[in-house]
Q: What sequence folds into this?
């Protein structure tokens, strides 16, 4: 996008900038209150849908006014992905006939909505260094509010708005009960955990560039503070994604001592969380039991049929292996090329790759992976070619975010969770806007 020349172009460029800024602030801070539900479903229309819809209108007008345009990064891959997933929707409605037509179209539109945010941030950040700095500062700022509200939930009975089940998703204000995992302004503890990983990735990136002791101290305090909140979510998957993220960011900058320090802080934080230690212990016991059962040949008695298999002793692991993942594979078998359509395999699969295979088939999966490959290559290339510390910090931190998402997607539907999906595409759009 070229810099705006006329007053009308400048006005719409100004509008796009501050609407994108509003998204970066609004999404992490405003709880998921529903405005209304789609008929016959648990899917809600929320305030951010209207905000993103209006921003889309502004972007379209902006693009019409600025006539000399070329296809932006990921443009061709996103178009192919949306086209194939639209074919999957049509196939589900007309051929397999196993979905609510309105619902499956809505799920397709939701994915379009999330991807559009990438282009909002890209076109704003593409203008100049100052615009990128403005958006990057807004990426970091809402984390303060998320932290403070999380503390208020823990110690002052601040309301919890969750979408962890259909009843909670109606917008009922709850309070955090003993043993319940922290969610802050997000819809569930997993969403909060992934958000914190993203912000910690940017803090890690800043740490690799900062030399002043006062700045280093402040950033380390921020790292430890958000890390403490991350342990309150008791998310094992988030810890794994965080370690990969830190390792990538520090290794690309050849800051190996910093990588060891930050990893040690992660390890120490785990020891301070009894619930996280318990959940990690459950996983360890599962692996030990599986190894023992593989090595030991024992007689099977009738009474043993009532014993739980090792994997069933950890509820979330059992749900994935016994229910959600097989269900996604069954959908793939029904229609290998286009899947059985969005919404056909329930609200959760807890594996983004299997979910994509089940809902959109091999063609949709290949198109989705092509978007991720193009994004990963683009981020790495821009990091290598970035001019100035700001662009390096943004691209390096976003590579950390990207790696954490790829790991988390093995166990979570990270690209379907609206808050973190919107923020992911906003952050990557900003990083891809850096000059290459």
A:
């Amino acid at each position: 996008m070229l810099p705006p020349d006329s007053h009308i172009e400048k006005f719409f460029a100004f509008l796009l900038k501050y609407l994108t800024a509003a998204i970066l602030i609004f999404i992490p801070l405003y709880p998921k209150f529903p405005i209304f539900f789609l008929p016959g479903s648990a899917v809600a229309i929320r305030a951010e849908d209207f905000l993103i819809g209006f921003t889309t209108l502004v972007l379209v007008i902006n693009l019409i006014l600025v006539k000399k345009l070329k296809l932006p990064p990921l443009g061709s891959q996103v178009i192919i992905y949306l086209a194939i997933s639209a074919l999957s929707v049509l196939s589900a409605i007309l051929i397999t006939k196993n979905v609510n037509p309105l619902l499956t179209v809505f799920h397709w539109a939701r994915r379009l909505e999330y991807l559009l945010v990438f282009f909002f941030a890209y076109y704003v950040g593409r203008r100049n260094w100052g615009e990128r700095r403005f958006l990057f500062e807004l990426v970091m700022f809402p984390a303060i509010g998320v932290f403070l509200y999380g503390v208020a939930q823990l110690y002052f009975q601040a309301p919890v708005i969750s979408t962890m089940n259909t009843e909670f998703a109606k917008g009922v204000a709850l309070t955090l009960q003993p043993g319940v995992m922290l969610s802050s302004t997000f819809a569930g503890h997993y969403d909060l955990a992934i958000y914190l990983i993203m912000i910690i990735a940017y803090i890690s990136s800043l740490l690799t560039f900062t030399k002043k002791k006062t700045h280093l101290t402040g950033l380390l305090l921020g790292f430890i503070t958000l890390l403490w909140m991350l342990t309150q979510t008791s998310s094992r998957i988030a810890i794994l994604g965080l370690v990969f993220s830190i390792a990538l960011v520090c290794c690309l900058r050849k800051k190996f001592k910093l990588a060891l320090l930050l990893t040690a802080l992660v390890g120490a934080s785990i020891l301070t969380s009894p619930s996280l230690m318990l959940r990690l212990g459950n996983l360890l016991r599962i692996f030990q039991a599986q190894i023992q059962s593989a090595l030991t040949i024992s007689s099977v008695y009738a009474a043993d049929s009532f014993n739980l298999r090792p994997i069933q002793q950890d509820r979330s692991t059992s749900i994935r292996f016994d229910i959600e993942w097989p269900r996604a594979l069954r959908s793939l078998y029904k229609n290998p090329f286009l899947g059985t359509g969005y919404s056909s395999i329930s609200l959760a699969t807890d594996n983004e790759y299997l979910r994509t295979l089940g809902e959109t088939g091999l063609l949709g999966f290949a198109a989705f992976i092509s978007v991720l490959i193009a994004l990963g290559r683009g981020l790495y290339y821009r990091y290598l070619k970035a001019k100035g510390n700001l662009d390096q910090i943004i691209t390096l931190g976003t590579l950390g975010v990207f790696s954490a998402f790829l790991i988390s997607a093995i166990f979570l539907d990270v690209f379907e969770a609206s808050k973190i999906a919107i923020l992911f595409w906003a952050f990557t759009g900003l990083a891809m806007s850096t000059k290459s």
In short: The first helix runs from residue 7 to 29. The radius of gyration is 22 Å. Strands lie at 34-37, 44-46.
